[in-house]
């Protein structure tokens, strides 16, 4: 890998649901130690972009490269083993396993990161999970399930996390805890693509912002650029 090579490179990615052409040439880079916020209106294709990168919706055409190696067309588990973790929009826990067992399901050595995540680190982010270690995940609140999903992914020691609307439907205090967690995993060297509907959170935790519209990236800028750009907000983000 060349020094200036992005960790993840996506070029002219197209994807369909049946006959519906949803991704229409998505190109983006994720460099080491970036948190890229992927924002846009509902239906603009943000979740589909993450699914296509992850191989959950096989792309119709285009390139996805992880550290210069093509992963487009690979199976989701291969992409996961290569170091990309995916936290879907819908809570994704093993309902009949305890919190502890769910976390153990996520444990993987990773592929050469300097930082190795521990249970204690997870419980420091979310003390509530520690209190509920022996509780069945299915009986947790939505917020607790979201925390658990993030922690289970982190314990796989990924290079990249793709996180889809982690704060949706959460109480303000939990939203803040999730935002703090994302800032800290960034500090520890994990790169993140974050789909986040709450603009204030997206701008607070990201280092760069991509705006999606009509199945492609229509704008790229810093969080400050976006905050100051009323026209952009009106054209691509206002409902
Ligand atoms: N499983 C699906 N089958 C058919 N169409 C879908 C499916 N999921 C999403 N879509 C459509 O694809 C478009 C993009 O959806 P999505 O990527 O979920 O948008 P976003 O996450 O930005 O809200 C929308 O028009 C949506 O209705
Ligand atoms: Mg979505």
Automatic annotation (TrEMBL):
<keyword id="KW-0067">ATP-binding</keyword>
<keyword id="KW-0813">Transport</keyword>
<dbReference type="GO" id="GO:0015658">
    <property type="term" value="F:branched-chain amino acid transmembrane transporter activity"/>
</dbReference>
<keyword id="KW-0029">Amino-acid transport</keyword>
<dbReference type="GO" id="GO:0016887">
    <property type="term" value="F:ATP hydrolysis activity"/>
</dbReference>
<keyword id="KW-1003">Cell membrane</keyword>
<dbReference type="Pfam" id="PF00005">
    <property type="entry name" value="ABC_tran"/>
</dbReference>
<comment type="similarity">
    <text>Belongs to the ABC transporter superfamily.</text>
</comment>
<dbReference type="InterPro" id="IPR003593">
    <property type="entry name" value="AAA+_ATPase"/>
</dbReference>
<keyword id="KW-0472">Membrane</keyword>
<keyword id="KW-0547">Nucleotide-binding</keyword>
<dbReference type="GO" id="GO:0015807">
    <property type="term" value="P:L-amino acid transport"/>
</dbReference>
<dbReference type="GO" id="GO:0005524">
    <property type="term" value="F:ATP binding"/>
</dbReference>
<dbReference type="InterPro" id="IPR052156">
    <property type="entry name" value="BCAA_Transport_ATP-bd_LivF"/>
</dbReference>
<protein>
    <submittedName>
        <fullName>Amino acid/amide ABC transporter ATP-binding protein 2, HAAT family (TC 3.A.1.4.-)</fullName>
    </submittedName>
</protein>
<dbReference type="InterPro" id="IPR003439">
    <property type="entry name" value="ABC_transporter-like_ATP-bd"/>
</dbReference>
<dbReference type="InterPro" id="IPR027417">
    <property type="entry name" value="P-loop_NTPase"/>
</dbReference>
<feature type="domain" description="ABC transporter">
    <location>
        <begin position="8"/>
        <end position="239"/>
    </location>
</feature>
<dbReference type="InterPro" id="IPR017871">
    <property type="entry name" value="ABC_transporter-like_CS"/>
</dbReference>
């Amino acid at each position: 890998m060349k020094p200036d090579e992005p960790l993840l490179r996506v070029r002219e990615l197209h994807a369909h649901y049946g006959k519906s052409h949803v991704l229409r040439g998505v190109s983006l880079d994720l460099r080491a130690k970036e948190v890229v916020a992927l924002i846009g209106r509902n239906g603009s294709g943000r979740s589909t972009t993450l699914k296509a990168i992850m191989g959950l919706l096989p792309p119709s055409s285009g390139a996805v490269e992880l550290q210069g190696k093509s992963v487009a067309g690979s199976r989701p588990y291969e992409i996961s083993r290569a170091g990309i973790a995916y936290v879907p929009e819908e809570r994704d826990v093993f309902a009949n396993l305890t919190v502890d067992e769910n976390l153990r399901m996520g444990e993987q050595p990773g592929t050469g990161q300097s930082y190795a995540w521990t249970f204690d680190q997870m419980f420091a982010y979310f003390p509530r999970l520690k209190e509920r270690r022996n509780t069945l995940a299915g009986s947790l609140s939505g917020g607790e399930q979201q925390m658990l999903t993030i922690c289970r992914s982190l314990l796989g020691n990924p290079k990249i996390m793709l996180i889809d609307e982690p704060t949706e439907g959460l109480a303000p205090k939990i939203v803040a805890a999730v935002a703090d967690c994302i800032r800290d995993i960034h500090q520890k060297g994990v790169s993140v693509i974050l789909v986040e509907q709450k603009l204030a959170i997206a701008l607070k935790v990201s280092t760069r912002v991509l705006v999606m519209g009509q199945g492609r990236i229509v704008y790229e800028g810093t969080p400050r650029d976006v905050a100051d750009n009323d026209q952009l907000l009106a054209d691509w983000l206002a409902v």
